[in-house]
Amino acid sequence: MITGLNHLASGKIRDLYAVGGDLLLVASDRISAYDYVLESEIPDKGRILTQLSMWWFGQLADLVPNHVLTADVDEFPAELAPYKDELRGRAMLCRRLAMVPVECVARGYLTGSGLAEYEKNGTANGVPLPAGLVDGSRLDRPIFTPAMKAEVGAHDENVTFEEMAERTGDPELAARLKDLTLAVYSRARDIAEGRGILLADTKFEFGRLPGGTLVLADEVLTPDSSRFWPADQWHPGRAQPSFDKQYVRDWLTSPASGWDPRSDTPPPALPEEVVQATRARYVEAYERLTGVKFV
Ligand SMILES: N#Cc1c(N)ncnc1-c1cnn(Cc2cccc(F)c2)c1
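Above: inputs. Below: predicted complex with PZK.
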């Protein structure tokens, strides 16, 4: 948290500030696992994921406008000058939007809450899926599985498209959000697959400009907003390894940590080698996707 700025909200990993009529989205080096924010930070994680978001916004600009004014600290308003070094690379100055109260989730692979519903009903957010799918199955056509935003700390509530249309009171907006979400995810899935990363699913947030234009908001297509899987380790029928969090998960569930995920106790600090190996995974994901060396 940056004292001295007008703090608006905090998620597990990021903080939101008001700067004049705009917003500043700041990504920390925090990392979460097993629904806990760990006491150990991953050096540069916020910078790597912010630069990855910015790269994706560029890749998607022909499909959808976004809310970012700039991520260059030298272009930030003068009031932010005292915080330049702390913000460099990890902050996006964004236009303030009227946010749509829906988590727009696209799934290209079946896992997590989507798999749970499928195993019970053969559907995902009420939409029937083909028989015989297993954990990690690739879906021929990505699906839109919206969720109504929950309070901080609670899990979002998966809803059918029809429920979403009803609860937003705007069926046209619901249809537009579905189309945009699937088009943007499909483009990203194809780009990532060509670089050895499977984007299993992702969560987009949209908002509206004063004139009503629908705009892509928040961060996009990072390992915090999406499931990143290494393509060369994809084996449907089991839990897939996480591209970025597997070292953390493996250590936390190993005897070495002395921690039990089923206990109500917070996880212990990570060993330095796990921190550094995890940092290296974020750097690798960034460099593989963008083709640019992280500096
Ligand atoms: N992006 C964006 C945005 C915008 N451009 N205009 C208005 N509101 C938001 C906005 C509101 N909540 N969040 C999510 C959120 C919560 C907590 C911390 C965070 F970093 C992010 C995003």
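DSSP finds seven helices and 18 strands in the chain.
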